[in-house]
TrEMBL record, chains A, C:
Native source species: Salinactinospora qingdaonensis
Name of the protein described by the UniProt record: Pyruvate dehydrogenase E1 component subunit alpha
UniProt keywords, alphabetically: Oxidoreductase, Pyruvate, Thiamine pyrophosphate
Source lineage: Bacteria, Bacillati, Actinomycetota, Actinomycetes, Streptosporangiales
Annotated Gene3D superfamilies: 3.40.50.970
Assembly behavior: Heterodimer of an alpha and a beta chain.
Gene: pdhA_2
UniProt xrefs under InterPro entries: DH_E1 (IPR001017), PDH_E1_Alpha_Subunit (IPR050642), Pyrv_DH_E1_asu_subgrp-y (IPR017597), THDP-binding (IPR029061)
Highest taxon of the lineage: Bacteria
Domain Dehydrogenase E1 component: from-to ranges: 42-339
Catalysed transformations (reactions): N(6)-[(R)-lipoyl]-L-lysyl-[protein] + pyruvate + H(+) = N(6)-[(R)-S(8)-acetyldihydrolipoyl]-L-lysyl-[protein] + CO2
Function: The pyruvate dehydrogenase complex catalyzes the overall conversion of pyruvate to acetyl-CoA and CO(2).
Region (Disordered): 1-29
SUPFAM superfamilies: Thiamin diphosphate-binding fold (THDP-binding) (SSF52518)
PANTHER family (alphabetical): PYRUVATE DEHYDROGENASE E1 COMPONENT SUBUNIT ALPHA (PTHR11516:SF60), PYRUVATE DEHYDROGENASE E1 COMPONENT, ALPHA SUBUNIT BACTERIAL AND ORGANELLAR (PTHR11516)
UniProtKB/TrEMBL annotation, chains B, D:
Cofactor: thiamine diphosphate
Xref: InterPro entries: THDP-binding (IPR029061), Transketo_C/PFOR_II (IPR009014), Transketolase-like_Pyr-bd (IPR005475), Transketolase_C (IPR033248)
The keyword Nucleus is assigned to this record: no
Entry keyword Oxidoreductase: yes
Signal sequence segment: none
Protein known as: Pyruvate dehydrogenase complex E1 component subunit beta
Domain Transketolase-like pyrimidine-binding, residue spans: 4-179
Organism of provenance: Salinactinospora qingdaonensis
Length: 366, 332, 366, 332
């Protein structure tokens, strides 16, 4: 309930959209294993470079459709994915390239999907918004705002029905908390005691509509109160804060068999999608974003703490760049799906009289 | 063989499938404690308990979507949507998710779920509770839509739907629940989705219907026989996929056809049937395909208005007579 | 927000569904004008007798379709309608016969609608679930659970858009708080500061599903917290408590131009609809309902207070009975709508090529 | 006359109507600060302010329903639903409320609102963002559905929709926003809802389309002219009501027809067109009515698959050639 909801570092947001993280309550770099920190740094940097390369490929028309990037959400993603076990399930919205990579899909598989190639993780059928991999248990990438919530709730129902010990994580954006599916899903998850953590990536806007102009209760983690779902807020630009909050809630979901709501506060560093110049943003906002770039900040913190040496930094940057280049090359050189496969995925169980007409064909083939 | 109602056939089959497969479970509004708005699930909560017979909150989008998600992990939910009118609230989950998940992700994950829901007017339920909108599902690739008109088909088709790995919408009808028919005892036969049935053979004209109108079509055909008119009757049974061959084959023999549908005429299910016939049996068609359907209005509550707006044995008979006249045959 | 929500008489419900009203905090009979009290009594009794007659007519097949009665909700309805001004708008669900009468539609108009006659308030086109009268500003009677919420919110938007001083009241049942439209509507109403009071008639069940089995936060008035909408709970079987809570909130909605949420605690005395035997109810529940019959209770309270004399009681009961009989006779003797009017109400603006086909007609009339 | 884009025509008209009538206002997701996902409402927030240009939360059911409710009190909301795919979430409000309120309550209260929404595939948006589901609205009595294919029609039809007292869905298309055409300057003419237009006269065959496919149909007809094929082109313009007379009159003259539609074939809009033709022009029809439509799959993202699945000038041309051959005419 709202009154029991604990506010982790991140705190409330001022109307200008600035936010300060109360470092005193946050976990410290000093108390972490250097290797762990470097691993986080590497994974955050991979997402950053991957998305930059994606933007480039999009402007070069190697990628089509809509293309939403995770720039500015790297710490959130790595923190969340660190909290999940391999057996845990993940459902996300369409802004999921980074999640796909961080959950364990190869950069090649994700980039090839963006290029629409048959080597893509969804065989080129899904594209940017629809990454899916049964193996790593990322059960989609969904483009309909809120569409993933009932599905994720159902996945948690299946886990509970079977008495399994997996947890489902359901990611969504701030604007998504205003749609009916949010209400119906949280109510059902709480009513049926399902092991699921709903994560709201509060990046301060929908497309251009701010949280304050879309949500009558802008402190989104408090919205769990209408379902007796405990809500927590964390600083989404602090990988350690996100990791700890997410680990706490996923493990409680697992042991208590209850749903939880986690809100992470971050900032979208570019437009809503690659084509959006984000003219509606003020200079101050853009400046605030730059000066709080989660990757740059973590990098300098690690350097200051002596964890990230010049050599280590160079090694990591080179290997990340190499991985991204390799992914792009792989995608570029992968085959396009063959038109003969057009009717391969309409039904899982073959059925009589299924239509396999091409646009110019008559209804009755000669 | 025993003679049971359409309702009983559905209940017996659901019950048997739940015994057969632990992954099969039922969910929907008021199906447990209340035992179902139309009592299809009567007794199931007592027998299987709350884990497998779940009363849901009033949240069509939420619980239909949850069923889809549960099926993605291999469960086989059988969801009851109280009437097809309320399914509009879950349409995004059904059309944009259940129907898309298998294809959109390159065939990695199937969605083995069933949605049971009744359509049907004639109960004076008014404009929002009397619609026949199976079209909304029949139009969508990725979904399978079946519409049994007899207790035997209700059983064999529900069995097929539950064992199928794709999302299947099974259309029921308020006007059929109490209808009776022979059903084989402890049967395990599975109907083939995508096949229509010639339920009566004849050479004079083809009458095509589905769900409640397939039943009406058979009755009309019997009466026409007394006039010496030998009508062939086709029960579509499957709206998606649509069995065009069976339709065209029949009309190529009879030379004329009338479609009987419970929905609105313009853009209704019958439009595709007529379009199919004119394309597939063009050279054998002796008269235009006529359609008997609901008047295109928000269905009024008042009985005389409702009755006038709905298709019936009388209106179907009239259309058959006029069609036969058009082919130059002398009729009553 | 939940913590600021004041709980008026009614209090929290025990798991058995029993509820006690804390009379100490409730307004007292003594402090009211006798005439006022008698008027409430008369109007409550009218609803009671009207619904009893409706049930009778339904079993005699004079009424078709679904038929949901207000038995047990008489105090709630009279309390709510007393709080509204004539110019205020009302939207309800399908359980609305009593609201229609209490908002000012004649018993004749409502009964004739139930009989499906052209003299009915909706000309026989709506039936039990669809009472509507532009004059008295009852803007429907809706059969789709939750359907009235966005509509009522929009009506409040129109009032606000024009700077009017009307208030919109939107009635719904407890089960309706679990559907997406509830979430989307309260959020929009709060976000846009609309003058609307959402009233949840908590009669303890949906059809047979109890509040506890449907709503993860069963104290429904607290659900406003997710939208910063103040929630209040009142004893729905106490006409004075409902009147005061509703008057307070409607006047605040008018002056503050804000939405509010009112939950009234009552009990459905019969099945969900006339045909439902309510087998799922326990003896205790039924007994509790009978012993707390709001009409009987109010009657004996007025008698004890000397407000309701034998004569007054007889006069009121006779006149109510007469009014109901008159309504039934009027309905019985009213004409059925003529089939020639079937196409009169498809469109308000006439349009070319509109279909006026009867089922047996060909598409092209000769 | 000035040559402007379809987008500009919509914007100019909406702007002019808002100046003309204080009751007209715009609402929808991201139409204000963001100036519209497809920039139809660019500049309107600055000009009219937040009261009349409302950014809504992401809540299609809620804000479309709120527009319906506001219209019940006499306002004339023009709602933008970002793409028709998302309208599924508001379908209950549109079909069970907007379309029913006038009739269900005996004609007491009209619903003068407009829903503007684009359909269209071909942008590699994948299975859930590329659908053409105008059928869902065209099927429903109580709604009016119009689909302009040119800037001039976009202006005249939006004007008509705003001034009409019934709920009108105006179908736009992602593929048309940048198309250009002549539009009369400060025009106040109002298109008549329910009328199709013969946009090109011809005697050899009738090509019928709407929205983007009406534009394609005209292009195809021009190319066919070079081959000496003189096609008549009909732009349906109004899907509900449907102007059957214009269609049948044309086919009675040409003797054959091909329907071009962007949606799926089975149960699609074209089915009604073909059914109408076989019933209304039976004796004049020399060959079956062919339909060119989308392949019946969840539309894949990959370009080669998407291109193959969508109808095009090429596929339409092929169908026209084959139809003419069927009537015994020698073609390229
Ligand atoms: C039901 C639905 N409505 C509208 C859209 C269009 N749309 C795509 S993303 C978006 C904004 C979502 O904002 P948020 O939830 O905060 O996620 P973010 O993009 O910020 O990650 C909108 C309105 C959609 N995809 N689905
Ligand atoms: C969207 C939708 N789903 C289901 C129904 C069937 N139904 C009618 S009434 C009802 C129960 C509603 O309960 P509540 O909101 O508490 O209202 P009450 O009947 O108790 O007054 C249900 C499920 C419906 N009419 N609409
Ligand atoms: Mg956001
Ligand atoms: Mg209730």
């Amino acid at each position: 309930m709202a009154d029991t909801a604990k506010s982790k570092s991140g705190g409330a947001r001022g109307n200008g959209g600035r936010r300060r993280s109360r470092k005193d309550t946050a976990p410290t770099i000093a108390s972490e294993q250097p290797a762990t920190l470097l691993d986080y740094y590497r994974r955050m940097l991979l997402i950053r470079r991957f998305e930059e390369r994606t933007a480039q490929a999009y402007t070069q028309a190697r990628i089509g459709g809509y293309c939403h990037l995770n720039l500015g959400e790297e710490a959130t993603i790595v923190g969340l994915m660190t909290a999940l076990h391999e057996r845990d399930y993940l459902f996300t919205n369409y802004r999921e390239h980074g999640y796909a990579v961080a959950k364990g899909i190869s950069a090649r598989g994700v980039m090839a999907e963006l290029y629409g190639r048959s080597t893509g993780v969804s065989k080129g059928w899904g594209g940017s918004m629809h990454m899916f991999d049964t193996e790593v248990r990322l059960l989609g990438g969904y483009g309909i705002v809120g569409g993933q919530l009932p599905l994720a709730t159902g996945a948690a129902l299946a886990v509970s029905y079977r008495g399994g010990d997996e947890v489902v994580m359901c990611q969504m954006g701030d604007g998504t908390t205003n749609i009916g599916a949010f209400h119906e899903s949280l109510n059902i998850a709480s009513l049926w005691d399902l092991p699921i953590v709903f994560v709201v990536i509060n990046n301060y806007t929908g497309m251009g509509t701010t949280v304050e102009r879309a949500s009558a209760e802008p402190e989104l983690y408090k919205r769990g109160s209408a379902y007796r779902v405990e809500g927590v807020r964390a600083d989404g630009r602090d990988v350690l804060a996100v990791r700890d909050a997410a680990t706490d809630l996923t493990e409680r979901a697992r042991s208590e068999q209850r749903p939880f709501l986690l809100e992470t506060m971050s900032y979208r560093m570019k437009g809503h999608s690659v084509v959006d110049p984000a003219k509606y943003r003020t200079k101050e906002e853009a400046e605030e974003a730059r000066s709080n770039d989660p990757v740059a900040k973590f990098e300098s913190e690690l350097e200051a703490a002596g964890v990230l040496t010049e050599d280590a930094k160079k090694e990591i940057q080179d290997s990340v760049r190499a991985e991204v280049n390799d992914a792009a090359e792989f995608a570029e050189n992968s085959p396009h799906p063959d038109v003969s496969t057009l009717f391969d995925y309409t039904y899982a169980t073959p059925v009589a009289n299924e239509s396999r007409r091409m646009p110019a064909d008559p209804v009755f083939a000669e | 063989m025993s003679v049971i109602t359409y309702r009983q056939a559905l209940r017996d089959t659901l019950r048997a499938e739940m015994h057969r497969d632990e992954n099969v479970f039922a969910m929907g509004e008021e199906i447990g404690v209340f035992e179902g708005s139309y009592k299809i699930t009567e007794g199931l909560l007592k027998e299987f308990g709350e884990r497998r017979v779940r009363d849901t909150p009033i949240a069509e989008e939420g619980f239909v979507g949850a069923a889809i998600g549960a099926s993605m992990l291999g469960l086989r939910p059988v969801v009851e949507v109280m009437t097809i009118n309320f399914s509009l609230l879950a349409l995004d989950q059904i059309v944009n998710h259940a129907a898309k998940i298998y294809g959109m992700f390159g065939g990695q994950n199937s969605v083995p779920m069933v949605i049971r829901t009744p359509g049907g007017g004639g109960q004076q339920l008014g404009a929002t509770h009397s619609q026949n909108i199976e079209l909304y599902y029949s139009f969508v690739p990725g979904l399978k839509v079946i519409a049994p008109s007899t207790p035997a088909d209700a059983a064999a088709m529900l069995r097929a739907a539950i064992r199928d790995n794709d999302p299947v919408l099974l259309l029921e009808n308020l006007g059929l629940y109490n209808s009776k028919g022979e059903v084989p005892d402890d049967d395990d036969s599975v109907a083939e989705i995508g096949r229509a049935a010639v339920t009566r053979e004849g050479n004079d004209i083809t009458i095509i219907g589905y769900s409640r109108m397939a039943m009406i079509a058979s009755q009309v055909a019997e009466n026409l026989a007394d006039e010496g008119i030998n009508a062939e009757v086709i029960d579509l049974r499957s709206l998606r996929p649509l069995d065009r061959e069976t339709i065209v084959e029949s009309v190529s023999k009879t030379g004329s056809a009338v479609v009987a549908e419970d929905d609105w005429l313009t853009y209704g299910i019958g439009a595709e049937i007529a379009a199919t016939i004119q394309e597939g049996a063009f050279d054998w068609l002796d008269a235009p395909v006529r359609r008997v359907a609901m008047a295109e209005v928000p269905l009024p509550y008042a009985k005389p208005l409702e009755t006038a707006a709905l298709p019936s044995a009388e209106s179907l008979t009239t259309a058959v007579h006029e069609t036969l006249r058009a082919v130059g045959r002398r009729v009553g």
